[in-house]
Amino acid sequence: MKELKPYVTVEWNDTESDAKGWLCAFNFVNHYCGGGTRMHPTVTKEEVERLATTMGYKYKACESLTTGGCKGGIVYDYKKPDAKDVLRRYIQAMAPYIKAGVSLGGDLGVDYADVLEIFDDMGIGLPATQEMRNNPKIQQGIKDHDYLCGQKYDGFLMYDMITGYGCAAGLDEAWKAMGNDKPGSVVVQGFGCVGASMCNSLDKMGYKIVGIADANGLVECQSGLDVKKLIAGRMPKGELNKNDFEDNYIWRKNSEWLDVECDILVPAALEDVINEDNVDQVKAQLIVEAANIPVTEEAEKILESRGVNIAVDFIVNLGGIRIYEVSVFGLVECKPELIVKDTEDLVRKDIRIVYEKAKAEGKTAREVARELFRPDTFDTPDI
After folding, report:
1. Which CATH number fits domain 154-371: 3.10.25.10, 3.40.50.720, 1.10.10.10, 3.40.190.10?
2. What is the pTM of this model?
3. Can you say which residues are annotated as belonging to the binding site for NAD(+)?
4. Which residues contact residue 91 at a Cβ distance below 8 angstroms, ignoring those fewer than 6 apart?
5. Is 71 designated active site?
6. Which of 5, 71, 237, 253 is catalytic?
7. Which intervals hold domain Glutamate/phenylalanine/leucine/valine/L-tryptophan dehydrogenase C-terminal (predicted)?
8. C-beta atoms surrounding 96 within 10 Å
9. Is the Cβ–Cβ distance between 361 and 368 less than 8 Å?
10. Is residue 270 predicted with pLDDT exceeding 90?
11. What is the pLDDT of residue 155?
């Protein structure tokens, strides 16, 4: 099968700081593509291109007929006081591509609300093609999308929770497909919007969260963490608040997250966090890729030989793009509970199909997912 390569990659160098970044459009569908922008000191061009490729597959898994995949990445510390200014200059540099059908959102280190604010300040609004701008139904859909993102569900803003709830549904479906009839124990690496909302949904389903890692450390409790309390006290940028810890909680280095005994591991932050250097530490039966590309190819081969299952990233974490698709293009009535059910149902369906086919054909879940959801449309920008 022919290797699919990104359509275009653009490099940017900031004029007022040492930041640099890239925009990669993997494929255009109907002259349009979408994906988030991340900001982190470790971002690389290769990473951005891999993430854009994943977005292409993700939109296919999302059953999109309107959008291809792209990704933005900025090499900079998102905690610095001028991070938003850096983001603004990056978006200004990418404006010609945004106006040609590249729709950028938020990701690790980048708040989607900040992206939308910058778009508004620049007079771009929500990125759209000429055809979308001239379609009254889609213009109404854009208004519905903006309204929806401001609504709350289970205490979270819709855009902040939808990916996490989709990931939780995918985890539950994969766990059951493995023959388990009772919820298992879970360790989550990353406590941002995805990690926190996923913990909340899993807690509601009866899963026991025994470990959560953030940028500063790892909290563990084998009898189960008080997820609701930790979420309520969560600090900016997804950091745990130690004031919410119980006496029986153990605080460890965040690099020790793989050492915690659990049934299910959830990398929900950075890429390549499970690799050939640490894969032997994995104790779980299932890895759920709430983050994009968190398991390297080398590590995955080792996990496969040990019988460890993987719930693939571009299936389980598609909630952020699905909410955009269904609201802007009017696929689902714009009510929070209906949007959440739509995402959860789609993720569950994709996981079920992949696991059934993988079992029948003796293949891995990723092999089957890449066959089923291989992008097949490669249009041009909106020029």
Report:
1. 3.40.50.720
2. 0.91
3. 163
4. 98, 104, 115, 118, 119, 122
5. yes
6. 71
7. 159-374
8. 11
9. yes
10. no
11. 94
